[in-house]
Amino acid sequence: MKTVWIRHGQSEYNAQGIDTGWHDPDLTEQGVLEAQQAGSQLFRTYPEIAGIYSSDLRRAHQTANYITDAANWSESLQVSPAIRDRDFGDWSGKPPNDKWKEWLPKPENGESMKDCAARVYGFLKELESNNSDLPHIIVCHNNTIRAASVVIGINAPEDVQNFDVLTGEIIEWVF
Asked: Is 102 helix (H, G, I), strand (E, B) or coil?
């Protein structure tokens, strides 16, 4: 199954250099532009899709709406909490720490990367039952895509801390 992952456009927290987790900031002007550019690029590459899916967090949902406006696909946007960002719990809203990127650390009141990967795996198994040869467009978060990279076999759990996705970046993988 072809999956096309897009990290949301730059958010207010990204611009400030702090981790977001389940906090819910808006996109910046740059983030809106990144989303519009991604939509145009995706539509040129994929005039037909199996579906488009977004995290329920505002920055991803806004990005997905800009993408669908630019792409003009007939499929409706589907929103799923399963592809939310990793829950950083007490780490949310703070400057990043490299330890937080690792597979197993679990912040107070949050989840580990492994927990996030379990959500992503369940989401992908649901999409897989769709039996479509067309790509699935997934608009979500850096940590969601990092977790997916382990689920799909691109990265090993011990290497995932070295993998990052830029805002507005598009990545294609087969599940």
From this structure: coil
Question: Residues near 109 by Cβ (< 8 Å), separated by ≥ 6?
Answer: 87, 89, 90
What is the mean pLDDT of the segment spanning 84-99? Answer: 90
User: What is the C-alpha separation between 112 and 100, in angstroms, rounded?
Assistant: 9
pLDDT at 97: 81
pTM: 0.96
Per-residue model confidence (pLDDT) at position 134: 96
pLDDT per residue as tens digits for the range 128-139: 998 899 999 999
Rounded CA separation 138/170 (Å): 10
- Structural domains in the chain? 2-174 (3.40.50.1240)
What b/e string do you get for 6-45 counting C-beta neighbours within 10 Å, with b at 16 or more? bbbbbbebbeeebbbbbbebebbeebbebbbbbbebbbee
**Farthest CA pair distance, the chain:** 44
